[in-house]
Design goal:
21% strand, homodimer, 446 residues, four-stranded parallel sheet, FAD/NAD(P)-binding domain, 32% helix
């Protein structure tokens, strides 16, 4: 009964799967091109993932880091959005099969991003908590606050420790920033909100399998980060593998055990391949092999960009580009320009990555940032971190709301959004009855 | 295994059930009293219900109208909060039975508020959508946006109408404000977000069984409201009963039918009685009979305030006080002072309601307000409405975020929070495994 209802025009149709950094930039670059742009996403919003950890730790409201996709493109005449899930692609027939029906394409771009990678460890996958989507971040916030509430109802010290210990696995920016935020919750929020709670029973761990945290940054910044985290009371373990986790006890490579009901896994991501892409175009971590024009191996009108794409045309990145927003954005822009060139009969330009730098925040007044050959740390890096994130956040309203939250938190040492949103079983049952499409309304409770 | 862990002191213990307007004010009034204050709520936040309709219509983020209860009382030394559900009360033994274990009390105050009242119509109850909690409002937002998305995937006009028609039942402030907000969605958001959609197929209805909307206000304000709503394109039907609703088609008292998948019911509320309160203290709508000191019939140390309480000591309100925030707040304050007087051996003061006025907003630049004998309408009433709501909203951060949202919406005709938060099945399964208490984490998806 449902059908995509996308008008047929004489212009070639460019179908983009995924409204992340890459997909958005690509669609924008095609703004005035003589093509019809169709963007598909399972959500109706663009998510600013770099601040997801602040939603998970009650620092920002979920709505402030999400921007409605229709809003972004409301003035772009050649643009059509459909909320849909892609089921498979038929590259021979140039047809994309989705849950709202088949969609024909002339150019297809897979900008499907990545998901949490547990590297095949099923036991950990079953019990660890991932954080890639907005709803996952909200669930983590609910869960963490509930752990605090429940630890107040216990008397056994071991049980309380188990509830209050939080373990971050993976020393990338996400792990570092999460660990810093948890340490700040312990420092500023718990003593005020739970004066009766023995806060000293709470430990925050950051566990990294490799020899340093923030592997993409310099030795200097990495060491500064570890020092900063330790000053905040985070237990940083490097060269430490996580062997097993059953939801209650974590076993390290050396056999040591840590009691915790909360293992947040940010040790890796992987591509999310779509059925119909030839196996020989996929590498083991799910990324799709593309050439320097982001064309998928064996195709000229099927492309992949961002986290989904595996491109190794730069000797600095022999294993492919890092799975970060910068790469996705630049590939989106390059591909958009290449499609415009194709239409004019011009030759395409090979993708060339320009690393604008990287940064991570550790906590109040503490961050590290590297760009233009500079290595910054401390207060100034922290200001730079905030300015860069605010400027890159989409939409004036979101910028203002995030700014207000940060200013409030800075001045009061408080976090405004520590609410547990739950319940509502009554409505959800009703609301589901009238849903026609396979995907469904959420935020419910069972 | 869980237990309330509330310290035993020599001071009398005042247990308040419910962190709404009444419960909060009562706890604050007891700030310096020689008592131990225990507040119980199933949620960890206070909800500013008057703005709930703006969350449901994508005008405000849920977090901006919720304030963590622990945050409100962080400087009140005699205060203890526990997130808990009350199961029953044993008034003979002065014990409250909850899902975190039994809690002893010296004074018990039921400030449990109200829930949607379908007046026994099971068929309507099953299909209509209520809006009393934060999660319900978020669910409505998700649902409404999804109706818009899905109507784009249809070609049959009747099916599209069914998706785009929104029916508000109940002409009180909630129904009026919801209807106005839906009309504004149609006016400002739909044409921009869904240029392909035949917006003229969308209708907004406001149905009231009685002879006027805003029954608590003057004839003049009521008529002004109806004119304002009609100018916005809302179909206002008064003296019109809703006979039946099956989730797709609504049947009116006169046999006429309206096709709609969305019937929002705000035609009435009822008390939520707690097991253990004697039947002869309950009236049919679930409110608890209290005397002028808010003491529950047959008790001296069990009280009810706000929506939960039925008190008819004022000839202006022969059927009891209206179920509004003002009454709850004033009863909370009066009871707090009476408990203090009891402790000093003084006599208690009978509750006396001071109506500070009432107001409702119809849309941009349009509202009605009555206070101090004044009857305001139009632009000025709209400004008054906004100022009063902002001032009454708890917390500086919330005030700022709401203000930013309103200013943004006013200037851009846009609504920033129209995102559909869904999915996350992966995490929720894991997160539920470690939950010990019967209530559970939510915002999940099945």
């Amino acid at each position: 009964m449902l059908q995509p209802n996308i008008p047929e025009t004489s212009q070639p149709r460019v179908v983009i799967v995924g409204g992340g950094f890459g997909g958005i930039m690509l669609a924008k670059t095609l703004r005035k091109a003589p093509v019809q742009v169709v963007l598909l996403d399972r959500n109706n919003y663009h998510l600013f993932q770099p601040l997801l950890y602040q939603v998970a730790t009650a620092g920002l409201e979920p709505d402030s880091i999400a921007f409605p996709l229709r809003g972004i493109f409301k003035r772009q005449k050649n643009f059509h959005f459909r909320m849909a899930e892609v089921l498979s692609v038929n590259t021979a027939g140039n047809i994309l099969d989705t849950n709202i029906g088949p969609i024909r394409y002339d150019h297809l771009i897979l900008a499907t991003g990545s998901n949490t990678n547990f590297f095949g460890n099923k036991q950990i996958e079953q019990h660890a908590i991932g954080m890639k989507s907005l709803i996952e971040a909200v669930q983590i916030r609910n869960y963490v606050l509930k752990q605090f509430e429940e630890s107040l109802l216990m008397t056994d010290e071991t049980a309380i420790r188990q509830k209050l210990n939080f373990v971050m696995v993976g020393g990338g920016p996400t792990g570092v920033e999460l660990a810093g935020a948890f340490a700040e919750l312990r420092e500023y929020i718990l003593p005020k909100d739970y004066p009766e709670l023995p806060v000293h029973l709470m430990e925050v761990y950051l566990i990294e399998a490799g020899p340093k945290v923030l592997a993409a940054m310099s030795e200097q910044s990495s060491e500064k980060t570890v020092r900063g985290l330790r000053k905040l009371g985070v237990k940083v373990l490097i060269n430490t593998a996580v062997k097993d986790y059953d939801g209650q006890v974590l076993t390290l490579g050396n056999g040591e055990q840590i009691r915790s009901q909360s293992l947040l896994w940010s040790a890796g991501v992987k591509g999310v391949p779509i059925a119909g892409i030839a196996q020989d175009a996929l590498i083991p971590n799910g990324r799709i092999l593309v050439n320097e024009f982001n064309q998928v191996k064996g195709h000229t009108n099927v492309y992949a960009i961002g986290d989904a794409a595996q491109l190794a045309n730069d000797e600095r990145y022999p294993k492919g580009y890092p799975m970060v927003a910068q790469v996705a954005t630049q590939q989106g822009k390059n591909l958009g320009n290449n499609i415009r060139r194709q239409l004019k009969g011009e030759t395409m330009t090979a993708f060339k990555y320009k690393d604008l730098g990287s940064m991570a925040t550790i906590g109040r007044h503490r961050a590290v940032a590297e760009f233009l050959g500079l290595k910054l740390g401390g207060y100034f890096a922290w200001i730079v971190w905030m300015v860069v994130h605010l400027l890159n956040l989409m939409g004036f309203r979101n910028k203002m709301v995030v700014f207000i939250n940060w200013a409030y938190r800075y001045l009061t040492f408080d976090r405004g959004t520590r609410i547990i949103i739950k319940r509502g079983a009554a409505n959800i049952v009703k609301l589901r009855q009238t849903i026609d499409s396979p995907s469904d309304v959420a935020l419910n409770q069972s």
